[in-house]
Amino acid sequence: MTASERHPQTKQRLAARLARLAESTEPFFFRAMIPMATATFMAGLVSSIWLAALGEWEAIILGLVGVYILPWTLYLLLLPCWIPQKLAQLAPNNKLLQFTMDLVILLWISFLTTSWCMSILVHFPTLVHKTAAVPIVLWCYAVAITPCIRVAYKYQDDVRTMVGLFIVQVLYLSVLVLVHARLLPISSAGLLFLITVWLCAFVQAALRVFPYARPAAGTH
Predict the structure, then answer these.
(1) 76: buried, middle or exposed (CB in 10 Å: 19+, 13-18, 0-12)?
(2) Which residues contact 108 (CB under 8 A, 6 or more apart)?
(3) Distance from CA of residue 127 to its chain's centroid?
(4) What average pLDDT does the segment 71-86 reach?
(5) How many CB atoms lie within 10 A of CB 203?
(6) How far apart are CA 57 and CA 49, in angstroms?
């Protein structure tokens, strides 16, 4: 068998493995959205009551304002994304152009997400007394993630959106715990968060432009 004959077979085997992996993981991320959204809501409810009992009203009010205003702000900040979308439509068969334009959009979304989440992490703990460390961690998580869930809900049929949201939630909660436990400086946490979501954006762009191919029946 020549190298040219082996190459298509290798691609078919890779496509089959990617298809099986995608089929096995898609239900998990779709089903995980409801319990994750519920957990975020409960974190916000419990922490807001806790902070109210401690008299930390400034953090509560600012958090509520951010939760309701940020999604509209994000929609406005995402308007320039129509430019790379239009550029990509000029050459629909150009995979490199499609990948580049999609990556630009995803990197911009990732930058906005990181900026919002890290601004909450930096600013909100300074509003409360040290005795409110536990509720402010839960409140920071709820305030930062709730707008992301509201925006992502519009694209819930896209598994890549659900995967990105899942990664952001887990990563941000981990960063919150590490920073408040003084195991990770805030500057390092922000850099780690940004690099991780940018790497995810790169993978998402690649999967959108070069999606896995469903193998034909009988392919092994």
Answers:
(1) exposed
(2) 78, 80, 81
(3) 26
(4) 83
(5) 13
(6) 10
- Annotate 95-158 with DSSP letters as a single string: HHHHHHHHHHHHHHHHHHHHHHHHHHHHHGGGGS-GGGHHHHHHHHHHHHHHHHHHHHGGGTT-
Rounded distance between C-alpha atoms, residue 26 and residue 58, angstroms: 40
Instruction: Grade residue 49 by pLDDT with cuts at 50, 70 and 90.
Output: very high
The candidate with the shortest Cα–Cα distance to 143, out of 164, 157, 122, is 122
How many Cα atoms within 13 Å fall on the side-chain side of residue 36? 23
Enter the tokens of residue 193: 């968060």
Distance between CA atoms of residues 183 and 192, nearest Å? 13
Q: Specify the 3-state DSSP secondary structure of 212.
A: coil
pLDDT category at 212 given cuts 50, 70, 90 is very low
Tokens of 54: 């401690």
| pLDDT band, very low/low/confident/very high, at 3 (cuts 50, 70, 90) | very low
Give the whole-angstrom CA distance, residue 140 versus residue 122: 10
Reading the block at residue 38, the tokens are: 């519920």
Report the 10 Å Cβ neighbour count for 162. 22
Instruction: Phi first, then psi: give them for residue 137, nearest 5 degrees.
Output: -65, -45
CA 129 – CA 49 distance, rounded (Å): 16
Rounded to whole angstroms, the Cα distance separating 40 from 67 reads 12
Q: Which two tokens stand for residue 178?
A: 């590490």
